[in-house]
Amino acid sequence: MTPTLRRRVFLVAAAVAGGLLLWGLTGLPDYGVYPGPYGDVLNAVAVDERKATNVVAAVTFDYRGVDTMGEEYILFAAVVGVAIVLRAQRGETEQLPDEDAADRRAPGTSNAVRVLGLALLGPVVLFGIYVVAHGHLSPGGGFQGGVVLATGALLVYLSGEYVTLRRVRPVALIDLAEGSGAAGYVAIGLLGLAAGATFLENVLPLGQPGALLSAGTMPLINLAVGVEVAAGFVLLLSEFLEQTLVLRRPGEVT
User: Fold this and answer.
1) Whole-number Å distance between alpha carbons of 94 and 43
2) Which helix H or strand E contains 143, and what residues bound it?
3) How many CB atoms lie within 10 A of CB 22?
4) In a domain, 142, yes or no
5) Nearest alpha carbon to residue 252 among 142, 98, 92
6) Per-residue pLDDT reduced to its tens digit, 7-59
7) In whole numbers, what is the pLDDT of the chain averaged over residues?
8) Is 149 exposed, middle or buried (0-12, 13-18, 19+ CB in 10 A)?
9) Which residues of the chain have pLDDT under 50?
10) Which domain holds residue 93?
């Protein structure tokens, strides 16, 4: 296929896709107009039925908990895929990357960045735990809190060097947390079957609205998701940073 023909095919496809996109946008309701009725119904009944003051969490982890489990496993599969693609091959050894720019001198991490990064580490981790633990009470939850927790590992890297992160990250524990978080969601769902109800049925005591120990199984699901998301993103960060080290087979010439 010639460049001219490829360009014409692209322009035709882009015109068709753009037309379909505009057609879809013209059918959207006006900004701020909600046609309902599902959101209105849930806002009216969710707090009384599930004792969760965060109605979004009640929807994602209770009313449509199976869908959310699928979303968690999409992330889990993506992390596993990255780990498989970027894994070290048998017989490869680590070597420092070559510096192709002869006169380039990369500056080291400044003391200000080190101090600020390490000072933020504790508050960031604490905030992540808060977001996960209070996901059924206020905006947040396992997905958001897990990302915040993983930011702690990024701060360790930004505050020093990758060798520092390698020393403090327990690889086996991260792998265990990734798998346990994903399996924990299913295990909580099986509680419903064990209680004679349906899968992911909210069978634990609901408590009182606004209390930390309320909403039945929702805090447990938030915890499982938070652990899986945090471990997954730390694993992704580690795998990508590992690629900064050149992996060569014995006798390989570059």
Assistant:
1) 55
2) helix 142-159
3) 9
4) yes
5) 92
6) 999 999 999 999 999 999 888 888 888 877 888 899 999 999 999 999 999 99
7) 86
8) buried
9) 249-250, 253-254
10) 54-97+109-248
- List the structure tokens of 98: 């070559």
Question: What would the two tokens of residue 171 be?
Answer: 């690889």
Asked if residue 10 is part of any domain, the answer here is: no
Tell me, what's the pLDDT at 88?
65
- DSSP codes of every residue in 37-105: SHHHHHHHHHHHHH--S-HHHHIIIIITHHHHHHHHHHHHHHHHHHHHHTPPPTT-EEEPPP--STT--
Number of domains in the chain: 1
* Phi, psi angles (nearest 5°) of residue 93: -125, 155
Task: Write out the two tokens for 243.
Answer: 């690629």
Among the listed residues 142, 138, 137, the one whose alpha carbon sits nearest the alpha carbon of residue 227: 142
Q: Is residue 195 part of a domain?
A: yes
18/229 Cα distance (integer angstroms)? 35
Tokens of 78: 């993506």
Omega before residue 37 within 30° of 0, cis: yes
pTM across the whole model: 0.80
Give the pLDDT score at 106: 64
CA 201 to CA 193: how far, in whole Å?
Answer: 8
How many whole angstroms separate alpha carbon 93 and alpha carbon 97? 12
Q: Residue 116 falls within a domain, yes or no?
A: yes
Tens of pLDDT, residues 89-107: 655 666 655 556 666 666 6
